[in-house]
Amino acid sequence: MLWEKYKSTMKITVNEKCSSAYRKSDHMIQVKNLKKNYVIAKKEKGLGGAIKSLVKSEKQTIEAVKDISFQIAKGEIVAFLGPNGAGKSTTVKMMSGILTPTSGKIFINGKEPYQNRKEVVKDLGVVFGQRTQLNWDLRLGESFELLRHVYQIDKETYEQNLQVMDNILGISEIIDIPVRQLSLGQRMRGDLVAAMLHSPSVLFLDEPTIGLDVDGKYAIRKFIKEINRVKGTTVILTTHDLGDVQELCKRLIIINHGTIIEDGPLEELVERIAPYKDLVVEFYDEEAVEHPKAQLHKQKGNVAKYRFQKADITAAQLIQEISEKKSIKDVAIEEVTIDDIIRIAYHRE
Amino acid sequence: MCNGLAVNWRAFFYVYKTRIQKTLAYRFDVYGNIIWQCIVMFATAYFWKALYTGYDTVKGVQVEDMMTYTIVSSMMSLFFITFVEQRVIQSVEKGTVATDMLKPIPLFGIYFFEDLGYTTSLIVQNVIPIFIIGSIFIGVPVPHSTFMLLLFIPSVIMAYMINWLFAACFSTWAFTAINMNPMVQVKKHLIRLLSGCIIPMWFFPEWLSDILNVLPFVYIYQLPLDIYIGKYEMGILLQKMGIQALWLLVLWCLFVYLQKRVTKHVLVQGG
User: Fold this and answer.
1) Is the distance from CB of B81 to CB of B58 less than 8 angstroms?
2) Residue A131 and residue B98: Cβ atoms within 8 Å?
3) Which of A84, A114, A123, A128 to mutate to test the interface with B (most CBs of B within 10 A)?
């Protein structure tokens, strides 16, 4: 029921945000026919193979990103989803100017990151969940101070930004601790602040909640939401945590085998992949009733599971109609979980 | 290095400053460096003393000059320690090169100022102690003349740059070769051997020293040391400094080319 309520609120925000985002014609990020090939040395099995590769190594080309095109408007929060090795991180790295694409074009605010990296990264904040940009040997505050000089942020703006982020993330408690002594959750908070100090208009987050506990995730999500609301920052995040997607993203892009397989609001994807619900009914005996608009999906003892299309009938009506035919002991409504939906999307070709 | 953007000196200065802070915080490797360099210095000094028994001068160099040569060369070895190769190797291996590249300042600019910060703290922590120890136990290394000392300083600065640029060019290899650590060791010892750091050029066979004089290595150690002990006439020394400046320019161009090429082909491992 909570899910129902959640979804209904979600629906409103989805529609609002999407329409306002799509109305603007100027796109913050444009990606056109992006491709990236890696050439790697092919390793053969066993000792013989190892010796052979010392003398002559065979090269193998791997297409990490095959042909990706999308556009992201200012102020959108977009999730990149996909199984490990799907090409998400490679795409993010190309967008942030670290990797040069094999072919295709990327425009961030009208500029190509691999052409003028230093120019583009000025307006970019990036957090890699698995590695830190903070200086391991220094106090957290000193890492921030270094970034202040690197991005040439004036003292006033810097203090102000730090203050705003302190309100959300409580960074002042940990600012004097050396980075090596921070817990993963604290370090991630530090990394987020570091990425946002220079008020970039685009924020890339590569698995920002990986390995964090419930409180940690909550803090990070709250921060992303706030930053997006207050500053209108465009956020792109890659994640395996679908909680992140549900809470934050108006739109998701699913990448698999280097191509985009889904692009749109989460709501739409759910509707398309799973337009049905299951109704589990417990009767007093082992005889289940039939219903024209619901299919008897499974039956075990006196428990029957009906699958019905959301478009055909509402759950309330179905319960009512079944109970009219036969007395019911208990009911439960089962929704396809978002994990299931994503899993179906990954495996569907 | 600039790529059309004004050089952000404040950021570099902050990198330099924090590197000094960091080095001062780790006392242990400081003593390690001093002990190691003392062993090398004393061994070399007694080796030369032993060879000089029965001779006043060898190849026009007096034993006192040889002692000066040894002490100053030891001081320079500490001054010339570079970390750029290790830094590049590690950041390529660990993938932190990605976060380095996300900053709107040149990658190698950060590495250079880190090394400069390290060198600065080493002057206080190592170079001066080695000077004092050498002065007490071997003899005060007096320069040939005040003018030679004044000439020695720019020459050492150019030598520092040649040494660093050479290391930086070498480090760009780490972007393509996976394990480079053994090569770094080979390079380090080859430079020490071929640059006159341990054995001065005039003890090498003529054909070999002729070859070496064309290569950049002798302009790292041999030339500044020649100036310090006043081995040659002023004219010859100035001419050699000209070649030193030329090598600096060549290595700079090579460095600019290599770092541009390499950052385009970064292969970030993992993730």
Assistant:
1) no
2) yes
3) A128
How many angstroms away from the CA of B68 is the closest CA of chain A? 38
Q: Are strands A259-264 and A251-256 parallel, antiparallel or unpaired?
A: antiparallel
Three-class DSSP labels, A253-312: EEEECCEEEEEECHHHHHHHHCCEEEEEEEECCCCCCCECCEEEEEEECCEEEEEEECCC
Other beta carbons less than 10 A from residue A216's beta carbon? 19
Q: What are the helix (H) ranges across B26-145?
A: 28-52, 63-79, 84-94, 97-101, 107-122, 128-137
Mutation pick from B17, B99, B114, B265 vs chain A, by most beta carbons of A within 10 Å, is B99
Instruction: Please name the residue of chain A whose CA is at the shortest distance from the CA of residue B13.
Output: A149
Judged by CB atoms closer than 8 Å, whether chains meet at B267 and A100 is answered as: no
Cβ atoms of residues A97 and A121 within 8 Å? yes
Q: What is the pLDDT of residue B271?
A: 39
Residues of B in contact with A152 (CB under 8 A): 8, 10-11
Q: Are A187 and A132 in contact (CB under 8 A)?
A: yes
Which position has the token pair 């190797």?
B89
Min Cα separation A345/chain B (Å): 23
* β-strands A27-42, A58-73 pairing: antiparallel
Which of A6 and A109 is assigned the larger pLDDT?
A: A109
Q: What is the pLDDT of residue B161?
A: 96
User: Residue B256 has what pLDDT?
Assistant: 93
Chain A, window 202-241: residues with a beta carbon less than 8 angstroms from a chain B beta carbon:
206
- Interchain pair A146, B96: CB under 8 A: no
Which residues of chain A does B102 touch, with a Cβ-Cβ cutoff of 8 Å? 96-98, 121, 124, 126, 133
| Residue A288 pLDDT class (50, 70, 90 cuts) | confident
What residue ranges do the domains of chain B occupy?
9-264
- Binary contact (A135, B18; C-beta < 8 A): yes
pLDDT digits (tens, 9 = 90+) for B77-101: 988 988 898 888 888 777 778 888 8
Which residues, other chains included, contact B258 with Cβ-Cβ below 8 Å and sequence gap of 6+? B169, B172
Could you tell me the domains of chain A? Answer: 1-42+61-123+200-273 (3.40.50.300), 134-197 (no CATH), 274-347 (3.30.70)
A277 min Cα distance to partner chain B (Å): 37
- Counted across chains A and B, CB pairs separated by less than 8 A come out at 80
Angle at B91 between CA B89 and CA B96, to 5 degrees: 170
Give me the pLDDT at residue B4, please: 41
Measured CA to CA in angstroms, residue B183 lies from B89, B95, B218, B269 at distances of 11, 21, 20, 21
Task: Please say whether the beta carbons of A244 and A79 come within 8 A.
Answer: yes
Angle at B160 between CA B23 and CA B262, to 5 degrees: 85
Residue from A93, A98, A100, A127 whose CB has the most chain B CBs within 10 Å, to mutate: A98
Which residues of chain B neighbour A118 with C-beta distances below 8 Å? 3, 5, 104-106
Distance of CA B162 to the CA centre of its chain: 8
CA distance A202 to B127: 47
